[in-house]
């Protein structure tokens, strides 16, 4: 049947999509192991295995007769949550966050694509609300192999670049500091700080899912504009731009959260770009005025909730501004005062 073939093709595309994302997450996972050792791999294993287990159990109890094809989205959810956490985060609490992401944010809607909210963002936001002290308390970098170590890495255990910006501290940029920022060799989320590695993953998007980069570009553009125009602390506009984009999980979220395919995700290029910009503005507002040093997951959830309404309004505004070219003949008739009988 044509319908069955179409459904089968869509299922294969979804499965391939999540396998590609998991492949892209391998690089930040390696960097997490490089900086934090076996504890990072253990946290990653607990989150991915736990999410997959909760997903399989949920499918068995909620859809006992149906056998939907496995799409690996639960593995992706667990990996994203783990890589945004500090390597020292308690394993049991990490598993609880993954359970919330799967059982509350995904299972009631059947799949990640049908869910109105990004499950990984919901799981991480849940952990932020329940255990903020542990979520934003980062261990010191263990630069075992000295591959990027030109000097002692800045920062101490417990502090991060995002927390420095939140309290108004500044950092004088230098070639060595910029190298640490780009390679992620400063305290922070265990897998989302290596900007160069994440940019390589973004390049991979060009071959697997180029349309998603509209979301990412719009998000980073809006964040960059706000950071440049409204620097925090004693930072210059340029320093603010660099520090804000390299802190926390901003670039990581731009690639793996903002462009997630949920039930309310836009599909066309311009709406994707506008959605990314809208999410970026929310993210910077939460960074500047929110309680937590990192508000990107809350921004993603708010954008998921508000975009169905905001997108309609913005589309109407766009159509009212960009009007179709007028018909010259019709305009001539109006000027002469009528139709065919006008003389």
Can you give me a brief rundown of this structure?
Helix content is about 65%, strand content about 0%. The protein has helices at about 1-35, 40-60, 75-85, 90-105, 120-130, 130-135, 160-165, 175-185, 195-210, 215-230, 235-245, 250-255, 270-290, 295-320, 330-335. Residues about 145-155 and about 340-343 have low confidence and may be disordered.
What does this structure look like?
This protein is mainly α. The chain has a single domain, classed as Orthogonal Bundle (Ammonium transporter fold). It has helices at 2-36, 38-62, 73-83, 91-104, 119-130, 132-135, 161-166, 175-183, 195-208, 213-229, 237-246, 250-256, 269-289, 296-321, 328-336. Helix 2 (38-62) packs antiparallel against helix 3 and helix 5 packs across helix 14 (296-321). The longest helix has 35 residues, at 2-36.
Estimate the strand proportion: under 5%
What is the averaged pLDDT score? 80
- Tertiary shape: globular
| Tally of alpha and pi helices | 15
Number of domain modules: 1
Beta strands, count:
0
Percentage of residues assigned to helices: 55-70%
The third-level CATH topology is: Ammonium transporter fold
What is the strand and helix layout of this fold?
Blueprint: H1 2-36, H2 38-62, H3 73-83, H4 91-104, H5 119-130, H6 132-135, H7 161-166, H8 175-183, H9 195-208, H10 213-229, H11 237-246, H12 250-256, H13 269-289, H14 296-321, H15 328-336
């Amino acid at each position: 049947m044509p319908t069955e073939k179409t459904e089968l093709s869509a299922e294969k595309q979804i499965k391939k999509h999540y396998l590609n994302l998991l492949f892209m997450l391998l690089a930040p996972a390696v960097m997490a192991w490089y900086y934090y050792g076996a504890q990072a791999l253990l946290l990653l294993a607990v989150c991915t295995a736990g999410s997959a287990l909760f997903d399989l159990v949920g499918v068995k109890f909620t859809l006992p007769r149906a056998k939907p094809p496995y799409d690996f989205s639960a593995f992706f959810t667990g990996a994203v949550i783990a890589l945004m956490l500090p390597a020292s985060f308690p394993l049991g609490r990490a598993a609880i966050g993954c359970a919330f992401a799967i059982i509350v944010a995904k299972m009631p809607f059947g799949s990640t694509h049908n869910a109105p909210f990004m499950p990984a963002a919901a799981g991480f936001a849940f952990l932020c609300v329940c255990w903020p002290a542990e979520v934003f308390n980062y261990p010191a970098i263990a630069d075992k192999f000295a591959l990027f170590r030109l000097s002692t890495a800045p920062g101490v255990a417990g502090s991060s670049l995002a927390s420095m910006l939140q309290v108004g501290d500044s950092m004088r940029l230098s070639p060595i500091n910029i190298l640490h920022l780009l390679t992620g060799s400063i305290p922070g989320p265990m897998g989302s700080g290596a900007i160069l590695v994440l940019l390589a993953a973004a390049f991979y998007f060009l071959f697997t899912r180029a349309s998603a980069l509209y979301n990412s570009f719009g998000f980073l553009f809006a964040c960059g504009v706000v950071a440049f125009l409204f620097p925090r602390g004693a930072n210059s506009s340029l320093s603010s731009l660099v520090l804000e984009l390299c802190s926390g999980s901003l670039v990581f979220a731009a690639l793996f959260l903002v462009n997630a395919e949920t039930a309310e995700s836009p599909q066309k290029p311009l709406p994707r770009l506008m959605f990314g910009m809208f999410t970026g503005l929310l993210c910077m507002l939460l960074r500047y005025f929110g309680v937590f040093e990192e508000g990107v997951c809350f921004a993603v959830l708010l954008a998921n909730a508000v975009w169905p309404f905001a997108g309609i309004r913005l589309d109407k505004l766009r159509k009212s501004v960009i009007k179709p070219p007028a018909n010259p003949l019709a305009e001539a008739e109006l000027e002469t005062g009528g139709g065919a009988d006008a003389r």
